[in-house]
């Protein structure tokens, strides 16, 4: 589904250049749950921003289903983000003036989808994520965990092919974080969602099927979960983080 081919990203000018990404390459298969880890400054958020076309790359290619997003016009990019990508952020990004139901269906409404179809799709995804009872409420009336479920629903409601999650558990307590990660895992396994999650948290990463580790803008290592249980995978992730060097608390 997604091909990252030798991408580079530079900031600054010729007298003061910062290389945020250095020839990063990897593929993401349809239906995969991939986590990207690294310490602050490793390039993981820059990578996510480039994949989502929020930022542009300096060199290389990013292909989604064979289409190079660098070749898209501004109008095509907006359509690409709206129809192909779903976003889950740690601060939820829900509009307080809209109900949960209206927040989930907003992108569909902006695309001039028939109101009845919007309602059907919203209620279908809300049922799958267990938040049907909060649809009439406003964001300030629900918990952080419920807000994040609503954000996941919004990311999936239009049938987006790739869900991008940036530190999705960052604003949640441990119980809500575990619930969200189990929901994302179910979205991947039961709903076929393809998920690319950036996280500094080893526990969160252990829910993925594969973990890429970035260091100084390069892919440092890769772990495949395979048939191993999540606790075993978690400790393997910690071992790699130790090998990255420095204080492990920077990335946990």
Structure report:
The protein has 252 residues and is α/β, with parallel strands linked by helices. It has one domain: Rossmann fold, CATH 3.40.50. The protein has eight helices and ten strands. Strand 9 (210-215) and strand 10 (218-224) form a beta hairpin. The protein is globular and about 50 Å long. It starts with a strand and ends in a 9-residue tail after the last helix. 42% of the residues are buried. Residues 246-252 have low confidence and may be disordered.
Give structural attributes.
252 residues; single chain; Rossmann fold; alpha/beta; 4-stranded antiparallel beta sheet; globular; 6-stranded mixed beta sheet
Largest sheet: 6 strands, mixed
The number of domains: 1
Low-confidence stretches: 246-252
**Tally of separate helices:** 8
- What global shape is seen? globular
CATH homologous superfamily?
A: P-loop containing nucleotide triphosphate hydrolases
The CATH class, by name, is Alpha Beta
> How many strands in all?
10
Ends apart, CA distance between termini: 29 Å
> Average pLDDT value?
87
Radius of gyration, in angstroms, nearest whole number:
18 Å
Helix content: 25-40%
CATH-derived architecture: 3-Layer(aba) Sandwich
CATH topology: Rossmann fold
Strand portion, in percent? 25-35%
Organism: Parablautia intestinalis
Family: Belongs to the ABC transporter superfamily.
InterPro entries: AAA+_ATPase, ABC_transporter-like_ATP-bd, MacB-like_ATP-bd, P-loop_NTPase
GO molecular function, one term: ATP binding
């Amino acid at each position: 589904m997604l091909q990252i081919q030798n991408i580079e990203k530079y900031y600054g000018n010729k007298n003061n250049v910062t290389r945020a990404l250095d020839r990063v390459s990897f593929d993401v298969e349809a239906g995969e749950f991939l986590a990207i880890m690294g310490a602050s400054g490793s390039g993981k958020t820059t990578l996510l921003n480039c994949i989502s076309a929020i930022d542009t790359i300096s060199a290389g290619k990013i292909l989604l289903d064979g289409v190079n997003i660098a070749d898209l016009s501004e109008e095509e990019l907006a359509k690409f983000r709206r129809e192909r990508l779903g976003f889950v952020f740690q601060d939820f990004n829900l509009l307080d003036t809209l109900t949960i139901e209206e927040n989930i269906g907003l992108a569909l409404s902006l695309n001039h989808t028939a109101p009845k179809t919007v309602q059907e799709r919203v209620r279908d995804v809300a049922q799958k994520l267990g938040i049907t009872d909060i649809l009439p409420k406003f964001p300030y009336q629900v918990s952080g965990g419920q807000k994040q479920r609503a954000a996941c629903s919004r990311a999936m409601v239009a049938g987006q092919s790739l869900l991008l999650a940036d530190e999705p558990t960052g604003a949640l307590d441990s119980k809500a974080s575990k619930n969200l990660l189990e929901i994302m895992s179910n979205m991947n396994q039961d709903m076929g969602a393809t998920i690319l999650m950036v996280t500094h948290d080893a526990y969160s990463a252990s829910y993925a099927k594969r973990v890429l580790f970035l260091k100084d803008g390069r892919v440092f290592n890769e772990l495949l979960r395979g048939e191993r249980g999540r606790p075993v995978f978690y400790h393997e992730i910690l071992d790699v983080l130790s090998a990255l060097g420095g204080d492990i608390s920077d990335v946990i």
